[in-house]
């Protein structure tokens, strides 16, 4: 009930400032003084701009409420294609998490036995923009299983996963029957929005 009274008072002040109530009577002056004391904050700073901004936000929320079925239908129309387009993106990271830590976890999860992962050094490019961060990973791995090795190389070099090889050297050791890769991997880390 108190909130409704405050909303009515704010509406009355906005109306008075934009359209006006016409001739002011002595009792209207007293109401204006009271409204002025509510509208004026510390140091006499006016909050009329904030009240107008709040009124605009209320109007916008009412618009969205009135058009909720249309908004929901449009969202459902784009949600599935969006989800399908990012489903293979392995470099998505939850909001608030460190992209470097997520990248290390991704690489450690991908390069498992029979792949032997060596040291991984990850550095972030300066100036991540709006939830997207470009990382560079210097890594090396080896394996005696040529199929697993090939799968790891191709998966890491697949742009659909959000990763591409910047530099790559592949060597084989016939005596140990081992394949070894040393390279620099670029990872596009994208913050999840859904």
Write the layout of secondary structure elements.
Layout: H1 2-18, H2 26-39, H3 48-66, H4 68-86, E1 92-93, H5 99-110, E2 115-124, E3 132-143, H6 146-156, E4 163-173, E5 178-191
Keywords:
25% strand; 6 helices; 2 domains; five-stranded mixed beta sheet; alpha+beta; elongated; Threonyl-tRNA Synthetase, Chain A, domain 2; 47% helix; 194 residues
Task: Summarize the structure in words.
This protein has 194 residues and is α+β, with helices and mostly antiparallel strands. It folds into 2 domains: 2-66, no CATH class; 92-191, Threonyl-tRNA Synthetase, Chain A, domain 2 (2-Layer Sandwich). It has helices at 2-18, 26-39, 48-66, 68-86, 99-110, 146-156, and strands at 92-93, 115-124, 132-143, 163-173, 178-191. Strands 1, 2, 3, 4 and 5 form a 5-stranded mixed β-sheet that branches. Helix 1 (2-18) crosses helix 3. The longest helix has 19 residues, at 48-66. It is elongated. Residues 23-41 have low confidence and may be disordered.
Give a brief rundown of this model.
With 194 residues, this protein is α+β, with helices and mostly antiparallel strands.
Query: What is the CA-CA span between the terminal residues?
Result: 36 Å
- The third-level CATH topology of the largest domain is Threonyl-tRNA Synthetase, Chain A, domain 2
- The secondary structure category is alpha+beta
Number of domain units: 2
Task: Give me the number of helical elements.
Answer: 6
The share of residues in helices is 40-55%
Q: Would you identify the regions where 5 or more consecutive residues have pLDDT less than 50?
A: 23-41
Order of helices and strands: HHHHEHEEHEE
Largest sheet: 5 strands, mixed
Q: How many extended strands?
A: 5
Mean pLDDT: 77
Strand content: 25-35%
The CATH class of the largest domain, by name, is: Alpha Beta
Q: What is the overall shape?
A: elongated
Query: What Rg is obtained from the alpha carbons, in whole angstroms?
Result: 30 Å
- By CATH, the architecture of the largest domain is named 2-Layer Sandwich
